[in-house]
Each structure stands twice: as C-alpha cells, then as structure tokens.
Design a protein that fits this description.
By secondary structure, this protein is an all-alpha fold. About 70% of the residues lie in helices and about 0% in strands.
C-alpha cells in the first residue's frame, strides 16, 4: 500500500469486509501483544530494548491492521516509548525534526501550488496533445503512462492519479464512440479501458521511485542509511539509480500493456481532436502558473546544485563543502515553499487585494498524515538503534538465515517479503518496519548496507495486485471500469516482472554503488 489519501483527491473507497475484520483483529491483538511482551522476560535485551520491542510490536500490528489512522499510530508509538521509560521525550521525539521531514513538507507545498493553479492538468494535456499520439489508442496509453510516471516523480502519486482520471476517462469515452456496435469489439474496448486505467495507477507508483521526494519510503531509506550505516545520499545520487530503475520498470509495464491490453480500433480521429480542444480551452498560462512553475524549478535546481558542484569541482573543494552544509534538500524545499507565500498571483481582476501564490488555508491541505507517519517511523527506528534492539533483532534474523547470509540471499528475501507485504500494508509502514532490521543485518553479515536498504525502499513501490494495495489502485478501481479480477491478474504479472528487475538490480547493479 502506498501513501495515505490526500484530502483533495476526492476518492476514498469505503472499507471492505476484510478491512473491517482486520481492524477489529488489530484492536484486540495489539494490546494483548504489548502486555505479553512487557511481562515476559526477553533474555539478552536490556530493559529499554525489551520495552521498546513491545512498543514496536504494538505499533506494527496497528499499522498492518490499520485499526486507527496510520499517522496516529506513528505518533502513539513514540509516546508509548516515552511513557514506558524507553527514553526521554526530547530524545525519542527528536527525529520528528529531522531535515527530511522539512524536505517532505516543502515538497508537498510546492506540489500543492502546481495543483492549485492548474499547471499539472495543463502539462498533462500538453503531453497528450503532441503529434506522437495522433489518434492512436495504443500510443495514447503509452502517453498516459509516461505522463503519470513523470508527474509522480515530483507530486504525490495519489494526486497524480486523481488528476489523470478525468483525462483518461475522456480518452476512453472518445475511443468508445469510434467503436462499432459489435459486442466483441465493445468487450475488447472494455478490456483496453481497464488497461489504460490500471496503467495510469501503476505508472504513478513507479514514478515515485525516481526522486527522493517521489514517495515516503525513499526518504525513510535515506535517513536510515545515514542513521544506521553512516551513508549519505543526496538528491542527484538517488536519481542516478532511481531514474534508470524506475524507467526500466515503466518500460516493462508498457511492453506488458502492449500485448495484454490491445485496443479495439487502431485509429480514432476524434481522440487527438478532443485532447487538443481541452488543451486549447485552458488558454495561455496565467501569471500565477508561470510563477509557481518558476519557484518549483528553482527548488529542483537547488536540490541538484550540490551534486553538480561536487562533480565539477570535486567533493573536497571549498565550494562543494559549502553547498553540502548550506544547501541541504530540506532547507531548499522550505525556502522555495516560503517564496510561494511572498510572491503574488498577479493583479486581481475584481479590484480585491492581491493574494500570494499560496495561502495557509491551501497549504494546510497537504498530506500531513504522511509527514507524521514518516516522523514516527524515524523516531522508532532511531530508538531501536540507541537501545540495541536493532542489533539484537538483526543477529537473530542472521542466525535464522545461517549466520552470515550472502548479500544476494538478503536482497532476494527482503525484496520478496516487502513486495508482498506492501500489498496489504502501507509502504511507509512496511519500510519503517523493515529497514531497522535489514540494515543492521547486512552490516552484521559484513556487507555494505546500501543494496539491501535500497531493495527495501524500491520494493515498497511495487504494489500492483489489489485495490487496497495503493491509493492509485483504489482510485482507478473506484471508476467502476476496472474489475478486481483484472487488476489481480495484471498485478500478479507486474509483481513478478518487478521482482525479477529488483533482484537483478540488487544483485548485479546496486552492490557496485558506493556513497559516503
């Protein structure tokens, strides 16, 4: 499962019977497990680690069962740790002020500005109106997937899918009008429409792999590597492997889609006309759009500058050291986001007072739940290290795998476990659970932590089988045009393709990467 739903996405599916039962199980099981682990002695663990183990188990059960909102669980876990004497509040809650938290907040506000002023829809229609599509349903599906993929590199995948939905439904309607009234042809078109919607959801999930701000697990992995292994990854370094891996996964999706979801007709003249008409109706870019895009572009430049300076002048140069200390990603994001509250939208047409590009009422609608979820995961992860719990669990898992398992076996095990666990559990929660175990385990076995940690983070974005696996899946399923069996069949194949890609990259590519 991926990020929590944005308030303005407008699509929150009602809980299924399975979800209700799962929540009830969590409500009864979590307190029992907490009490049991607190009362039963745990040999080899100091008292703080023993109590933290009970808190982590309690938190994980609530995350898996989603008994209460994930963000509230993320806040409750550290609070319980303080109440049970695991550590002082100032220490336990310190990770909520981690610089990555501010990177996420700033990036969310920047993305919100693009959405408020309509640039996201304009850019999507512009891409779809290019001559590449030219009335071809097959190429339209490719364009839709590439567009969703590109946007979700920078914007929450839920918001990306919600933005693309009316465009995709309009394209499918245009293609349907061009189909002859033949039951077999209409059945083929129905499968194609399912495919375009499913491709949109999958591509939005894959795009998040490419940048640190694309999805929460990426930031959690960066923080965990820095905290547990002393490995620092900056924005450009993440993109150096995130973009190739995400692009390879997208290509696999498009090849699969080309053969699995064939259109009922090869050309639709009205398809190209409709998209161009909708794009033309938007008119020229307004001043507020241009200014929002400029500030967002400024943030992207700020994120990349330290890496470019390091490549041009060397990592030990004074300029590179200054950029590293003075331009961390979180500072750039917050500074750029603050500009949105200073720069005006332009002269109002009705004589009212001019407004800034972003108001606080608009900024409040970002996905604060994911921010709290990220902070809670960082807090518990940091506590597992300071109390020695992470080392103890890593040693126990290592012993179960044969003492010092080879790196390829670790990558295969964590990849399989995370891919299928995240079908039912938030990808943020899954990453928070797995990284404090996987990284110390890799280090204890004498391996570099980077490949295993990245396998966990990237696998968390490969959830394709069920509507509950990710909000994009739920959004397209909520259209009424996608059947559960269709998503399940496609998701099984995509999970296998993604798993093969991840294992290949993890065994032969990621071990070659060394970041300090």
């Amino acid at each position: 499962m991926s990020e929590t739903f944005e308030r303005d996405a407008g699509v929150t599916p009602p809980p299924s019977k399975f979800d209700r039962i799962r929540a009830q199980v969590g409500a009864g099981l979590a307190p029992v497990v907490l009490a049991t682990l607190l009362l039963v002695p745990t040999p080899g663990l100091e008292t703080p680690a023993h109590r933290l183990l009970a808190v982590v188990a309690f938190t994980v059960i609530l995350w898996i069962c989603e008994t209460i909102p994930l963000a509230i669980t993320a806040l409750l876990g550290p609070a319980l740790a303080v109440a049970l004497g695991v550590g002082p509040a100032k220490e336990i809650f310190a990770p909520f002020a981690h610089p990555l938290i501010f990177l996420f907040v700033g990036a969310f506000i920047l993305a919100r500005a693009l959405s408020v002023h309509g640039f996201d829809r304009r850019a999507a229609l512009w891409l779809l109106s290019r001559g590449f599509v030219a009335g071809s349903p097959q190429r339209a599906m490719t364009a839709v997937a590439v567009t969703a993929f590109s946007f979700s590199m920078w914007i929450n995948n839920t918001a990306t899918t919600a933005m693309m939905m009316p465009i995709v439904l309009g394209l499918c309607a245009s293609i349907r009008e061009a189909c002859p009234d033949d039951p077999k042809v209409l059945e083929t078109h129905g499968r194609y429409a399912e495919g375009m919607l499913i491709c949109t959801a999958y591509a939005a999930s894959l795009g998040g792999i490419c940048t640190p701000v694309g999805t929460a697990p990426n930031l959690i992995a960066i923080a965990a590597l820095d905290r547990f292994a002393g490995v620092t990854i900056d924005f450009f370094q993440w993109m150096s492997f995130g973009v190739p891996i995400g692009s390879a996964a997208l290509i696999a999706l498009l090849v699969f889609a080309r053969f699995y979801w064939r259109p009922a007709v090869s050309e639709v003249t009205e398809l190209d006309t409709r998209v161009r008409r909708e794009f033309a109706e938007l008119g020229p870019m307004s001043p507020k759009e241009r200014r929002s895009v400029a500030i967002f572009g400024l943030a992207v430049v700020g994120w990349l500058v330290p890496s470019l300076i390091r490549l041009g002048w060397g990592p030990k140069s004074e300029l590179a050291l200054w950029a590293k200390s003075s331009l961390p990603e979180g500072v750039v994001a917050i500074t750029a986001a603050a500009l949105l509250f200073v720069v005006g939208r332009g002269a109002p047409s009705n004589g009212a007072s001019p407004q800034p590009l972003m108001t606080w009422s608009e900024a409040q609608r970002i996905d604060w739940g994911t921010v709290y979820l990220l902070g809670g995961g960082l807090a518990l992860g940091s506590a597992t290290v300071s109390t020695g719990l992470a080392e103890a669990v890593g040693n126990a898992v290592g012993a179960a795998l044969g003492g010092a398992p080879p790196q390829w076996l670790l990558i295969v095990v964590v990849s399989i476990l995370v891919i299928y666990l995240t079908e039912l559990v938030s990808n943020t929660a899954t990453t928070n659970m797995m990284l404090p175990i996987a990284i110390p385990l890799a280090l204890a076995a004498g391996h570099h932590a980077l490949p295993v940690a990245l396998a966990v983070a990237l696998a968390a974005s490969f959830a394709f089988m069920l509507p509950v696996s990710t909000p994009p899946n739920a959004i397209v399923y909520g259209s009424g045009l996608v059947e559960l069996k269709s998503m399940l069949r496609a998701g099984i194949w995509m999970n296998l393709l993604a798993l093969a890609l991840l294992i290949f990259m993890g065994i032969w590519v990621l071990p070659a990467i060394r970041f300090q």
